[in-house]
Amino acid sequence: MKAKYLIMSIAMLSVTVGCTDLNVDIKSQYTSFPDNDRAIEAKAASAYYYMRGPIGRNYNQAQTLSSDEATTFSFNGSDYYDQGQRIHFALHSWNADDALIGYYDDATAGITACNKLITELGGADADATASLRAMRAYYHWVLMDSYGDTPILDHSLGENEAVDRSPRADVAKWIESELLAVVDKLPDNVDASTYGKPTRWMAEALLAKLYLNWAVYTCGDVTKYTPTMPNEKLNACVKMCDDIIASKKFDLSDDFLKKFYPDNGYQIKDFIYAMPFDPDIDPGMTYARFWTHRSGNKTFYGVDLPNSVGGCIAMNPEFVDKYNLKGDERNESFVGGPLFVRDPSTYKATTTPWMIDGKQVTLTKTITLDKLDETMPVDNTAHGGRSQGYRSIKFYMDLSLTKSQERRQGNDVPIFRYADILLEKAEAIMRGATATNGDTPASLMNQIRAYVHAPSVVGTPTLDDLLDERAREFADENWRRNDLIRFGKFEDDWGYKHIINPSAKTQLFRRIFPIPTATLKTNTNWKQNPEY
Q1: How far apart, in whole angstroms, are the C-alpha atoms of residue 415 and residue 207?
Q2: How far apart are CA 22 and CA 41, in angstroms?
Q3: Which tens digits make up the pLDDT trace of 388-436?
Q4: ∠ CA 333-253-277 to the nearest 5 degrees?
Q5: Model pLDDT for residues 135-161, shown as the tens digit of each residue
Q6: Of 112, 160, 257, 338, which shows the fewest CB atoms inside 10 Å?
Q7: Sign of torsion, CA 367 368 370 375?
Q8: What pTM did the predictor assign?
Q9: DSSP designation for 282
Q10: Biggest alpha carbon distance in the chain?
């Protein structure tokens, strides 16, 4: 069991809250709130993990497959097609009924749980509720970043109380005000007791991300946003980054690959805020299931896995090409070409070829479909369709899984990392913020290059250089969609989306997702996002 479970999983205490109905009557069952820190923390922690399920699968796939990182396909036009719920994202043709965008419900359930507990623990002004307010702000950010206009739910709704969606810009400003109001009240210690929970540093990292995307969030119409729009919050972004850097509580001393292994946890110095996973008590993380070669449950990992794997997600060739730095340890976060059996103790490749039917399995970088249609079909053979596309092994398969645990991994997923803070500061300076503490975009990027043993940046890096650095550093960490929108590249050509769905070039409204159909049916006073 991981060291982080010194604090056990408070997630098991989670209350079940109606997901889609925002017009619910939530009344406290308590006449007084706990009067000791331990009881307060146990009660509050039940509201921290409502995004665990989505981050473990649907949110991850929505962010990743809608970006240039990865594509997906079906086998023979049917197997793993699943009503197109993943393929629609690879083709930029998603709709309001696709399962991957259903995490709207999870975030609103988290907000509802936070509001209930804020009331029980003394109200918004009580010091005991600071962490809940920070968590509530994070859930609002998820909704605002993904869906645009969203209701500001700053209290428990009364019976028959209707709520309207607020403009995205107003939500961004409210999130900022909430985080600034509580940041000094949040814990600033970094250890097992605060792992996976809101801290000062989590709030500042969220503020930095909010500020860097401020022009996106406040432009009014997502289709009008351009990356040349002025951003009044760039210096504020740098200020948040500087406070995190000056704390000296985080660093880049961890090996790049090992920080994502199944035994990662609070000891990783790069993690500012992460979502903890455990196959039994905190389940839901399934990244390797979809990335692993479909025959890879047998012998590839050096052990036979107790369950099958899907193998229906692969890297876009254009994204593979970004891993072009000699000696860069991040180049080992995916596999391609001839495959070799992995050592189950070191997770490294051995010299033993991985053979199926007397032939070494070889992954092709290019992906060739059997026909150009919306099912994106490849054949279902070990050396054919199953071997098309390079595969991420960044969140390495948890080899200790049992059959009863199915394919639920124990790898924790970082949400905010120190490496991100360095690159956000570099980007803010590139976009016009005042440089501080002698830092330059090159010196900040070179801190990243140094710890992964990649060549140093020479000269003055461009914004495109920085975007490529972010690609290498944060692949499969749920940030690429966010980055591409901010850089004005979300509609660029990659994969098959512009071949099968040419309208993807001009559908700028897809910079936000549609409100799920089920949510609209419950909140009948809402209108769907434009063009959906």
Answers
A1: 13
A2: 26
A3: 999 999 999 999 999 999 999 999 999 999 999 999 999 999 999 999 9
A4: 60
A5: 999 999 999 999 999 999 999 888 778
A6: 160
A7: positive
A8: 0.93
A9: B
A10: 71
